[in-house]
């Protein structure tokens, strides 16, 4: 696996790339991609960083694992490629945007349009074996993505972190809440949403309100 990541992030994360755990992780991922079908495609493993340079970043959304179905994962959490059916969590995200902001339900589930505006769509684990959810967890990705969150917290100000569900909320400990804004709610998955933990959270209007308060452009969701 070649660490072909946007230069703005390479500067921030150079130390991580040289640590023993990352070299072990690289070997593991290369081996998995050579022996099995894995997602996202190799060139999109670091897509979240490529679409959202460090200097542009103003919002972070944290997912857990890439989609493991054929053609779904594109390196951005919750996002799918154009023409792919929207997974249940993404449907619920779009439904909440509809009710929160009065916007029409989007045709495309590709969230590159958010990333280009400064939304880092970060999965805690950046790769997965096809049809095997969680298969690349606990191999080093979480250490790396925790370092990403820590770096953002330390080196930037006024970032809005959207932490959806129990797993994402655990990342609060990495964030300096005295200079960043953390919004938490339930996960958009049907299991959580159908129990009343997702709909009506207004994450998207609240995010834009926070950005506007510090003089930043709101996100066109």
UniProtKB/TrEMBL annotation:
Q: Could you mention a single GO BP entry for this protein?
A: base-excision repair, AP site formation via deaminated base removal
User: Which InterPro entries does the UniProt entry name for this protein?
Assistant: UDG_fam1, Ura-DNA_Glyclase_AS, Uracil-DNA_glycosylase-like, Uracil-DNA_glycosylase-like_sf
Q: Cross-referenced PANTHER family, in alphabetical order?
A: URACIL-DNA GLYCOSYLASE (PTHR11264)
Q: Where in the cell is it found?
A: Cytoplasm
Q: What are the entry keywords?
A: Cytoplasm, DNA damage, DNA repair, Hydrolase
- Name of this chain's protein: Uracil-DNA glycosylase
Transcription found in the keyword field: no
Q: Which reaction does it catalyse?
A: Hydrolyzes single-stranded DNA or mismatched double-stranded DNA and polynucleotides, releasing free uracil
What does the similarity note say?
Belongs to the uracil-DNA glycosylase (UDG) superfamily. UNG family.
Q: Which residues form the Uracil-DNA glycosylase-like domain?
A: 50-211
Q: Which SMART domains match?
A: UDG (SM00986), UreE_C (SM00987)
Active site annotation, chain numbering: 65 (proton acceptor)
Pfam families named in the record: UDG
EC number(s) recorded for this UniProt protein? 3.2.2.27
Q: What is its main location?
A: cytoplasm
How is this protein annotated for GO cellular component? cytoplasm
Example GO molecular function: uracil DNA N-glycosylase activity
> What function does the entry list?
Excises uracil residues from the DNA which can arise as a result of misincorporation of dUMP residues by DNA polymerase or due to deamination of cytosine.
């Amino acid at each position: 696996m070649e660490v072909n990541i946007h230069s703005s992030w390479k500067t921030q994360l150079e130390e991580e790339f040289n640590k023993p755990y990352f070299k072990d992780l690289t070997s593991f991922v290369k081996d998995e991609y050579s022996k099995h079908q894995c997602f996202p495609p190799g060139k999109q493993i670091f897509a979240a960083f490529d679409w959202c340079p460090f200097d542009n970043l103003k919002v972070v959304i944290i997912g857990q694992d890439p989609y493991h179905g054929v053609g779904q994962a594109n390196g951005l959490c919750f996002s799918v490629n154009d023409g792919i059916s929207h997974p249940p969590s993404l449907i619920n995200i779009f439904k909440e945007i509809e009710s929160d902001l009065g916007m029409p339900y989007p045709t495309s589930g590709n969230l590159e349009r958010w990333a280009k505006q400064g939304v880092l769509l970060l999965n805690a684990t950046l790769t997965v074996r096809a049809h095997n959810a969680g298969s690349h967890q606990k191999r080093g990705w979480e250490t790396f993505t925790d370092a990403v969150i820590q770096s953002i917290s330390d080196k930037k100000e006024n970032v809005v972190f959207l932490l959806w569900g129990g797993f994402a909320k655990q990342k609060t400990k990495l964030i300096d809440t005295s200079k960043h804004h953390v919004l938490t709610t339930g996960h958009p998955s049907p299991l959580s949403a159908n129990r009343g933990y997702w709909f009506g959270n207004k994450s998207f209007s609240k995010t834009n309100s926070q950005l506007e308060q510090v003089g930043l452009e709101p996100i066109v969701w």
